[in-house]
Amino acid sequence: MVRASQVHSYITRNPKDVCVSYYYHMKDTPVHGFKGSFDEFFDIFLSGNIDFGDYFEHLLGWYEHRNDPNVLFLTYEAMLENTAEAILKIASFLDDAKYAEPLRQDPEKLNNVLKYSSFKHMKESVNSTISDIVKMTPDEIAKSDLPDTMKNIFSQIPKEHLPDDGSPPPVNFIRKGIIGDWRNHLSEDQSKRMDQKFAERTKGTDIPNLWKNYM
Q1: What's the N-to-C CA distance of the chain in angstroms?
Q2: CB-based contacts of 29, cutoff 8 Å, min separation 6
Q3: What are phi and psi of 64, to 5 degrees?
Q4: What are residue 164's phi and psi, to 5 degrees?
Q5: Which of 3, 66, 127, 211 could form an S-S bond across to 73 if both were Cys, CB 3.0 to 4.6 Å?
Q6: Which UniProt keyword terms apply here (predicted)?
Q7: C-beta of residue 208 within 8 angstroms of C-beta of residue 202
Q8: Dist. CA 76–CA 54, nearest whole Å
Q9: What pLDDT is stored for residue 168 in this prediction?
Q10: What CA dihedral angle connects 120, 123, 125 and 130, to 10 degrees?
Q11: So what's the pLDDT on residue 69?
Q12: Exposed, middle or buried, 81 (CB in 10 Å: 0-12/13-18/19+)?
């Protein structure tokens, strides 16, 4: 939901890579514990009957607001290919004088932002943090300083999602973060079906131009 009184940064990614990434998220995150195959997940994703709703509906809803003054619309691919430019764009959107100008004037500050927002750093820190959380008991989670939403999620990991010996499950919350991993997962038929769905749902828009080099 776009609120005029707030600023929104919206990051979107091509649906083929989203499908693959989402599959591993659902499979490797203990609170979800998806047990099906990628082929099964692909059909679920394409149907739109999935956690957090239909991908295309979400994309189309935000795309309508891409030129709103309080919305910054970005693609994952562009951010990955030129991260420094994306950081400056976000900083400028929030407050150019306060956030972007200091980064332009001090390369060391910009390099620090690049370092600590890098995929490598985030994978190490986030996976480690979540691994620690899933080792906690429900009582420890309740008494922690975690946000309420995270407390609710991680205190309710189904027993069937845990290893048979009751040990904490392995966590791979952040996996690859690359562009084009869909080529290692989608069959030729699945790729064509996604292309067809994409064309149908984005007809009449210039959304296809966002990923003409990636799908």
Answers
A1: 28
A2: 171, 173
A3: -60, -25
A4: -60, -30
A5: 66
A6: Transferase
A7: yes
A8: 18
A9: 55
A10: 180
A11: 93
A12: exposed
Contact 179, 17 (CB under 8 A): yes
Using left for φ > 0, alpha for ψ between -120 and 50, and beta otherwise, residue 157 falls in beta
Helices (H), the chain: 15-28, 38-47, 55-63, 76-81, 83-95, 101-105, 107-116, 119-134, 138-143, 148-154, 188-201
Residue with tokens 């619309």: 73
Dist CA 123 CA 50 (whole Å): 25
Which regions of the chain are under pLDDT 70?
A: 1-5, 30-33, 127, 153, 155-173
DSSP β-bridge partners for residue 202:
none
Closest-CA residue to 18 (of 192, 193, 207, 178): 178
Strand partners, 72: 9
Contact 75/206 with Cβ under 8 angstroms?
Answer: no
Q: Are 184 and 24 in contact, with CB atoms under 8 Å apart?
A: no
Q: Cβ-count burial of 101 within 10 angstroms (0-12 exposed, 13-18 middle, 19+ buried)?
A: middle
Residue type, 213: N
Is residue 183 helix, strand or coil?
A: helix
